[in-house]
UniProtKB/TrEMBL annotation:
<feature type="transmembrane region" description="Helical">
    <location>
        <begin position="137"/>
        <end position="158"/>
    </location>
</feature>
<protein>
    <submittedName>
        <fullName>Zinc/iron permease</fullName>
    </submittedName>
</protein>
<feature type="transmembrane region" description="Helical">
    <location>
        <begin position="170"/>
        <end position="192"/>
    </location>
</feature>
<dbReference type="Pfam" id="PF02535">
    <property type="entry name" value="Zip"/>
</dbReference>
<feature type="transmembrane region" description="Helical">
    <location>
        <begin position="67"/>
        <end position="86"/>
    </location>
</feature>
<dbReference type="GO" id="GO:0005385">
    <property type="term" value="F:zinc ion transmembrane transporter activity"/>
</dbReference>
<keyword id="KW-1133">Transmembrane helix</keyword>
<feature type="transmembrane region" description="Helical">
    <location>
        <begin position="199"/>
        <end position="219"/>
    </location>
</feature>
<keyword id="KW-0472">Membrane</keyword>
<feature type="transmembrane region" description="Helical">
    <location>
        <begin position="106"/>
        <end position="125"/>
    </location>
</feature>
<dbReference type="GO" id="GO:0016020">
    <property type="term" value="C:membrane"/>
</dbReference>
<dbReference type="InterPro" id="IPR003689">
    <property type="entry name" value="ZIP"/>
</dbReference>
<feature type="transmembrane region" description="Helical">
    <location>
        <begin position="35"/>
        <end position="55"/>
    </location>
</feature>
<keyword id="KW-0812">Transmembrane</keyword>
């Protein structure tokens, strides 16, 4: 579990640091294949692992899982109103701010992103108490880490444009980096027994599955808005699909 927390911290801080020296225009070139890869990986993982696992935990009431999936899917729509789509690598330029007149920290945006990241970490359980539920732990960790890389790059870029100094970016970036590990710690060491015994873990899986379905499908649609065959994006998508199937 320590390795998983380290990986999540490293990917967020590393991708955020890259925003200090990679121009936004150049960053977009490598972000699109990475987004296509992570979107295909997350979508496949959700359909083949997370949803079946949630349904197995509530075999008598499968429709309840469906309701939580819907809540996660449409709840993500509301979160993106606040986060401005940073979860899937959107960088919005703010022309009203400059290094000479820095703006305020976008607390609502940062809060929405932190909540999104915390929920992702909360489904990552890997203790003896969890039993077979933890068998997909590292597969989902990789998916979350891949998903956080473009999000961290976009967040660091936006905060730098908004605050006028990259040194002021690190606090927000570090808080975002810690959100998923905190979710892991809370689920595994604080409330796991209550979640498993009450059926709330199945609801949490459904909620995050809906969240992942929204994010991954948005990514896949946005990486090919012109609906034309793009070989690099197609290769990245197939690679993400095959990797998620391989970890099964």
């Amino acid at each position: 579990m320590g390795f998983a927390i380290f990986l999540l911290l490293l990917t967020v801080l590393g991708a955020g640091a890259a925003a200090a020296w990679v121009p936004v225009a150049r960053g977009g070139q490598w972000l699109k294949p990475l987004l296509a890869f992570s979107g295909a990986y997350l979508f496949t993982l959700t359909v083949t692992h997370i949803l079946p696992e949630a349904l197995q935990l509530l075999p008598e009431h499968p429709t309840r899982v469906g309701y939580w999936v819907l809540a996660g899917f449409f709840g993500q729509l509301l979160l993106e109103v606040l986060s401005q789509g940073i979860e899937h690598g959107h960088v919005h330029h703010e022309h009203g701010h400059s290094p000479e007149a820095p703006g305020r920290v976008p607390f609502l945006l940062l809060g929405a992103l932190i909540l999104h990241s915390f929920l992702e970490g909360s489904v990552l359980v890997h203790t003896p108490e969890a039993g077979d539920i933890s068998r997909n732990f590292y597969a989902i960790v990789v998916g979350v880490a891949l998903h956080h890389m473009p999000a961290a790059f976009a967040l660091a870029t936006l905060l730098r444009l908004r605050l006028g100094s990259f040194r002021r970016v690190w606090v927000g970036l570090l808080i975002f980096a810690l959100a998923s590990p905190v979710g892991i710690i809370v689920s595994n060491y604080v409330v796991l027994s209550q979640l498993l015994s009450s059926g709330w873990y199945a609801a949490l899986l459904g909620l995050v599955a809906g969240n992942f379905l929204h994010v991954s499908t948005t990514i896949l649609f946005e990486t090919s808005p012109e609906h034309r065959l793009n070989w690099p994006k197609l290769a990245a998508t197939l690679a993400g699909l095959l990797l998620a199937l391989a970890v099964a």
